[in-house]
Amino acid sequence: MSDEQRANGTAADGGVKVNDRRRFTPDGDPIPGADAEAAATPAEAPAPAPDPRDATIAQQQARIDELMRALAATVEEGKAARGRMEREKTRVLEAERAQIAQVLLEAVDHLELALGAAGDAGGPLVDGVRLTLSSLAKKVSDLGAERLAVLGHPFDPRLAEAIDLVAVSDAAQDDVVVQELRAGYRIGDRILRPARVRVGRVARS
After folding, report:
1. What pTM does this model have?
2. What CATH number was assigned to the domain covering residues 147-205?
């Protein structure tokens, strides 16, 4: 058997023999320690098989995260829905108070006109009108209606209607409400009705 045949583990007749992994010198002698070195070379360790429990844990964690996100979204939707309901409830109550206040204010207007016509006259009738007017004014206040403060203030078209202009000589009263013909009221930011006023205007030459 030749050296090449011994190195490749091939028999002279072509049969397969045990592969001799020893290394040899040019003279055909084995290199001392070569077989020990080959035996000492560690074989490559096979990769560990994946643990199926790891995949199950990952799936469960992903499902937990998904459920937590869904729960957080549900909580936020609930808060938003409650907020909308509270705002709608407030709006409805404010509208109802405004309607009632409008009716009461019409009665207040009539009583104020009656007292204005009575002037300085007294008597049980006038006193009764004053008491009724005071009671209605309190009910209007209890509904949250507030009288607009416009007299003596610069004219604001959002709060008052200018019936006409009044000539004034004082420049400080130019475009200022100098007379209130009918009181205006508001509930919160909602104007129940604007005031009716006369506005000062300095004559311009």
Report:
1. 0.56
2. 2.30.22.10
